[in-house]
Amino acid sequence: IALTIAFGPSFLNHIIASATVIFTLLMVAIFSREEEFRRTLRESLPTVASVTLISSISGFSLSSARERIEDTPGILTIYPAIIDTLGDCGAIFGSTSTTSLFTGLMRPSFSEISSRIYELAQIWVAGLIYYFLYAILGFSVGGNFNSFAIPLLVYLILFPLISIFTFSLAILAFKKGLNPDNFIIPLETTMTDTITTVMLAAILSI
Question: How many domains, the chain?
Fold first, then answer.
């Protein structure tokens, strides 16, 4: 369906789509008896559903703010980097947190986030350097102060929220005995994209 929408109903697209479906069904048939495979499917399906729902919100927000973003060339230029870097910061914190949990270096308690302050500070400083460079690039393209200030404002506000969200996911996944790789990074990156897009739309509408 996606290939047909993007490139039209060509014979090659039908072949590719059919081959993809057949390959997927074949993999399911081969590995369906393996417990790890079934567990991955059980854990991934809710994540995929959640990611799809969150992504639809992000898409709606982006479409509603499309004209405002296009009217701000500085923000338009750095928009992909803004959402990607913030997601990377959250993914780094989530990965190190789950590693500490599974190696016994950290208790599965929300209060343990206080013991991660030094690590968070390192990630925050590294991310801030990137966002400062994005702000300079946005200013050089857009030629106005908003293109410089907005990326920094978005980062300073959203970094703490994303960090808390990611840490909470790590704790919950560990307590439920779930594989964090099936939850944390997909949900965190999707949530980051959505929140960042919504916030940009809100700021640009002021």
Answer: 2
